[in-house]
Design a protein that fits this description.
Elements lengths: L20 H29 L4 H24 L12 E3 L4 H8 L7 H25 L5 H24 L11 H20 L2 H5 L1 H15 L29 H29 L5 H21 L4 E3 L1 H10 L4 H15 L2 H8 L3 H23 L9 H17 L9 H7 L2 H18 L21 H5 L6 E3 L2 E3 L5 E2 L14 H4 L9
Antiparallel strand pairs: 1-2, 3-4, 4-5
Amino acid sequence: MASTPNSAPATQRPEDENLGISANFAYGLQHVLTMYGGIVAVPLIIGQAAGLSSADIGLLIAASLFAGGLATLLQTLGLPFFGCQLPLVQGVSFAGVATMIAIIGSDGAGGIPVVLGSVIAASLIGLLITPVFSRITKFFPPLVTGIVITTIGLTLMPVAARWAMGGNSSAADFGSMANIGLAAFTLATVLLLSKVGSASISRLSILLAMIIGTLVAVAFGMADFSQVLSGPLLAMPEPLHFGMPVFKVAAILSMVIVVIVTLVETSADILAVGEIIGTKVDSKRLGNGLRADMISSMFAPLFGSFTQSAFAQNVGLVAVTGVKSRYVVATAGLILVTLGLLPVMGRLIAAVPTAVLGGAGVVLFGTVAASGIRTLAKVDYRNNMNLIIVATSIGFGMIPIAMPSFYHHFPAWFETIFHSGISSAAIMAILLNLLFNHFTAGNSDQQSVFVAGTERSLRYHDIAALHEGDHFVDGKLYDAQGNEVPLQDEDDHAPRARPAATASRPSAKVTS
């Protein structure tokens, strides 16, 4: 039936608002700037771990920008069964960095095809389990995800330290005061901009500090940009530039853990942004978003990129700005694709002095760990074994970081999985959570020494019964005249009166 002038228009979802080309571009660019430091950090880390040349690292960066842009377009605009159509920026995930470094191991550039193969296979597995993932999310509560995210940040700190020292351990200036001083200057710049800058400057503090640190490095002759113009200015990412993907079972199993963590994180981001903008997110929409994540992660390695996931900092930006339009974020995706077609930008970023990256990395990686700690703060530690789960899992994850040779005499497949601190912590957290919180048969009914103490609390009428001058000495309560005030035992229900001399005084706070 045709609508009449008095007919109420269909309710528009808040994310479907289109602000126009200029506003979409301005807000979209802000999204790109907010996540730019994070999206280029992963290919930088992996490229340097593999010993790639600046040109190849530039290609990794360009591929990550290109793949992230396409993933963002898929997530925001959507296709049948793929994309949650919410303002979520996608990009290469930090969750897999330590695992990919462990897979690369001593193979250097030869390990890149193994990494790419493991990402493809693990993402396919993730795509297949997406329909049932919502049924098993109870096995990945904040207790588990908090442990994993915290471990991700902690395992990356040695990378930041190595960068701050210069990156190349065989270089003559590795660990020199010049390198460490440059890293310290960059770190100080991040902190200063975060403290005194406006909200927009604070959000861009890491990127701005890297620019300022690089300019200082140029002034002191510590930067080399000779390779920036050595290749094409504009080019499509070359498929399979690093060779055909190689599939190894142990590497795939390690990456499956990363993919599961990514699914959990993306689920949280989708639900969070839905709540922020005030739109409905049902299981179908959640599934579409997770499938978009996995299909993007499957195809990204063909261009030389890695697992894709939603960027949490951009979810925060949506909350701060109040701009709910998915078309704004789709525009950000177009900007990322465009940057990915400019390999010169990748080479420019690859030329940033490693010490500058080290200074920024302290904050960048520390923020990841802090996010995990914030998640762990939501966990209830009273009258359960969650404290020992956290302690054991994080401790287990730190073993390969503190002693990289710990698993050298184990079978190769075992070493590949557990040489990653993230895999170690995740496996232990999942198993212990199942053991103590799901398979409760056999749990002792006696309180363990590892159970966090019950929070201290006082009853209001207990406080009201105190008088001016009351004070404790050696566990006994005395009034202002020094008379002991009898205390009632917990199992003594007969109240004991205070001495008559003190009964008429007004109530007041206790002094010690």
